[in-house]
TrEMBL record:
It comes from the Bacteria. Gene3D superfamilies: TerB-like. Pfam families: TerB. It comes from Tropicibacter oceani. InterPro entries: DjlA_N, TerB-like. Coiled coil: none annotated. Residues 23-140 form the Co-chaperone DjlA N-terminal domain. This is TerB family tellurite resistance protein. The lineage of its organism: Bacteria, Pseudomonadati, Pseudomonadota, Alphaproteobacteria, Rhodobacterales.
């Protein structure tokens, strides 16, 4: 279903994503982080819906539809590095901290920080050009909210 999209993501010289594809890639990354600990539940899915509704001004129906598409894409996609590269190319550096905060919101949605989620978030942060300190500060902001 997402063969063309995945081919564009995995191309040696990927073309920057348009807004719609960037939304899908970011949402798929949120799903990947939520699934990292082997437990993807309604709490995390609801949090993802809230994040994409707020970030993109979507209706509840549109947010759920985007998440459902992202779940399918995430299941077909080869690796996190390619997702992250697409997002890095599509999101200006100044906005990437918002991406990290969104990822932390998903990790913390179920109230438990698992080692697998921490490891994946550390990898993603570094691939996005966000250092560990800034990622930790983003996590702290999310925890206080």
């Amino acid at each position: 279903m997402f063969g063309d999209f995945i081919r564009r993501l995995t191309a040696p010289q990927p073309v920057p994503l348009d807004d719609s594809d960037a939304r899908l890639a970011l949402t798929a990354l949120l799903v990947r982080v939520a699934r990292a600990d082997g437990s993807y539940d309604e709490t995390e899915a609801t949090r993802i819906d809230r994040i994409v509704r707020a970030r993109y001004g979507l209706s509840p129906f549109e947010a759920t539809k985007l998440r459902n598409e992202a779940e399918s894409l995430e299941a077909e996609a080869p690796d996190t590095v390619r997702f992250t590269r697409a997002i890095k190319d599509a999101v200006p550096f100044e906005d990437r901290l918002g991406v990290i905060e969104a990822l932390w919101q998903v990790v913390l949605a179920d109230g438990v920080r698992e080692a697998e989620e921490d490891a994946l978030l550390r990898l993603v942060s570094n691939l996005l050009g966000i250092n560990d300190r800034d990622s930790a500060l983003a996590r702290q902001r999310v925890e206080k909210a």
